[in-house]
Structure formats: C-alpha cells, structure tokens
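As described in the Methods, two query proteins were run sequentially through the folding procedure within a single session, without resetting any intermediate state between them. The first query and its resulting structure tokens are shown here.
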Amino acid sequence: MKSRRALGRSTHHPFHLPWLGAGDLTDNELSADDVVRKTGWVFNNETGDDLTLKEFVETGDKEVRLFMRLLRLEEFPTETSSLVEIGSGIGRMTAAFTQRFRKVTACDVDSAFLERCRQTVAKFGRIDRLVTSHVADGKSLSITDNSADMAFSYITLQHCETRDALSLVGEAIRVTKPGGVVVLNFRTWVKGDVLLVPLGFLVRSMWRMPVVGGSLSRWRWSTRLGWQANRLKPDIVLAEFANKLDKIQIFHSAKRSLTVTAKSEFDLLPTNRINPSHWWLVAQVS
C-alpha cells in the first residue's frame, strides 16, 4: 500500500489537509477511544471528551440500518454480496457493513485511517470480510472493474473538489457489476450556501498558509467551513452518468423541494429523515 505521507503536505488539494492532520494523530500510539476524541473535528460532531469508539461505531450501526430502510435497500441480498465503501474513515459504518455483506472493501484517502479501520472492524465487525484500499490520488479506486455488487458513499463526495467527486462517481460505477447498485450521497445548494461556499474557499486558502495553516486545518469551526468544497445538483451528475445507469432513484428531504430537469428517466422521492441539504442517488448499473 502506498504510504499516506506520499500524498504529502504539498498536495494541490487543500481539502485533504484536515484528513492528513487527523491521519498524523492516528499514526500515534493512541488508544482507539483517544483517536475518536482527538480527531473529532474530522470524524464526528461531538464536542466533549468522553466519546468512545464503541459509541462512535454505534452511530454508524444506526445509520446503516436507517439508510438501508430509507433508500429501499432492505431486500438487497447483502449476505451474498460485496460492497465497496468510498470514504470509510476509521470504520464508523464499515463495521456494520461487514456484519451484513459477504465482503467489504473500505476505501479512504488516508492509509492511517485504513489501519484504524481494520482495528475498528476487528473489534466491532467481521474482520474476515474486510479488505482495504488506499485512494492515493483522492479520485480513483485501485479496484477491478465489475467486481462489487454495491458501491456506497456517505458524506464524502461533498468534501471533494467537483471534478474529483465526479471522478469518484465514475469509479463507483466502474467497479460495480452490471445489475449491481450504486448508493451515493451528495450535497446540493441551500440558501445558507451563499455564504458557506465562499467562506469555504477562503478557509481552504488559509490552510495553505505557512506556520498557522496546519493548526487551522485541525480546528472544528475551520474544517466545518473549509469542507464546503462542492455542491452537486442531480442534473450535473445525471448529465454525465445517466447513460450508464438504470432504475435511477433520487431521494431527497421531504422538507424541501428538489428540481431535476434531466431528460433521463428517474424517480424523484421525497423522504423523511434525510438532511435537507443532501440527496442520494440509488441506481442500477447498466
């Protein structure tokens, strides 16, 4: 596996900097609970010092159950299927996936996270079902074509530069077998983005500053702003990939309307308990 440090602090993608900072901490001889607490600006919204890895993983277990139900995936034959998870982090949801799927390939931009992911799954999931894959360039997967039954990504694509996010969508489709399913989460525009997106650009620029930039990329408020890297409307994604997909479903929050003008066939499904700024693409690979 290529070293995480090979990605380097000189990366042209400043939105990787918080991940690299958190990766440095996970490289240290910290307990699993310490990793969750000390990297909270990356992995969770908890502000206290008492969160444990067990509690952290339990939030992932709950969300896996929730999304399988909300996205109408409960009938998917997980016990005989393989899953590729794009953006696994240290395994918050990965552990639950290994309890359901025959094989899980956890992918992340930071190899130190993947080592911790293995530890998390060994403790709370099925380590015999786990494979890890380093996304060294942040946009392509080192996985064979047509090798997975499902590709899944949650709160990852929104943290990528637009072109990289679309590249990962293409990669999700590439690695999924014909007839398999992609389940991908995106963030779209809301009113507050008029301020958030420009502020995000400004903060990412500040992360590049010598001396203070590294520290700034480890502060909670800074990462929350700096990660406002893209907003992808369904029309943008469908324009590029609809010809590779069948049975396209777009799930969005029932609390807001979502306009889609794409010429391709799709079902637009307002759904409770989805974040108003999020939408999901669930589709079968042609």
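Immediately afterward, the second query was submitted; its sequence and tokens are:
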Amino acid sequence: MSARIRSVNAGDPEPNRANRVRVTGFGKRPVDHAELRPPGPKRGGLGSGLVGDFIGNTGHHGGDRQAVYAFAREELDAWERRLDRALPDGAFAENLTTEGLDVDAARPGDQWAVGDQVMLEVTGPRIPCRTFSHRMGVRGWMRTFSEVGRTGAYLAVVAGGTVRPADAIRVVAEASHDVGLPETFRAFMGDPAAVRRVLEAGFLPPDEAEWLHRRVAPSG
C-alpha cells in the first residue's frame, strides 16, 4: 500500500477535568478536508496548524513545532489488540491518521509532501500528558504508552494548503542524522544515552536542547 492520509481530524472545545486549563480539543473527529498553515509561536500564536482545530493548553501544545500531529492507523490497530477495544481514527488526538507509512521510522528533519500543496517537516515525538491519560481511561496509561515508545510525529508546516483523506504522502527529504523518533522520545523521557545522541546530532532548537541538557546535568 502506498503511503496516504486515511483521515484528517479536528477537535472542538470541550470540558477537561485533567488539568487546570479545563478545556481541551483532544476529541478529534474526521473532517472532509482541512487547511494547514504555520500557527506561529506556542504562546500567543494560533494554536493548531489546522484551521478550525482547537487546542486548550497552548502553553504545552500547538505552535509551529507542534502544528500537526500524525499517527499511523497501523499503530492504532496494534493498540486495539493490546487494549481489546475499538480506537477510531483520531482516538489519540492525531490530526492526520496515516496509512502505509511507518511514521515512527521518521527522523526529526525529514520532510513529507502531502497531496499537491502541503509540505510538512518532522520535528519530534509526542510526549504523553495527563489529558491523554484521562481520555484513555487506562490505569498506568502514560507508562504503558511510553514503554511501547511508538509515539507518532509532531510536524511543522513548511508549505500550507488543503489536505484531504486519500492524499498521497511522499518523503521528499531526509534528515542528515540517524536519530529517529523513538530515540528522541527516550531522550525527552530522561534516558542519558539517548540525550547524548540527540544533543550530538544537533537538530533541536536552542531552547529544547538547553532543556534537555538540564534534564540530565548533574545537580550542585
């Protein structure tokens, strides 16, 4: 199967009891198309890269480096088997449910052409949060999700435009390093060896690199 968009998903505001913001757009539902554009900074920007997609906690989600979230349908199918429950497209709050693409084999810096207009760049893994855990309703969910470590990909919008289900996805540029999303995720979860590899690869923006360095730096 060639790589394609299976579903484009957007969320409306709804109550959230999982954190202090009290409102979330986690409940993504399929739409027939969406316009993508760079949303600007995380704080003070437009939030999501999808026009019409709501993000509640803009201190931790959205912005240019988390403009779009992609997750593979094949991974949702694997979670269905693990959890013995149905997981429709958008169940993990992904904006793009893909098919025929190993999203987790991507590296930060890879670029994808989607359809005829859109260009997206992989920026990093998804880090699980309290809202994700609350919505899944699975005891120990963040640990379980993290142990599997196939998180999907956050994407920046390099060139905007309209995306629709069945749009083809093509990897048109590959990162110059060999650090993949699972290893980047382990770094952000505190694995010292992964932190060293990520920092040596040099693909993080300065603020993220500094945060990661401090996470494993000796105290005192």
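The longest strand covers residues 4-11. We note this only descriptively and draw no conclusion about the first query from it.
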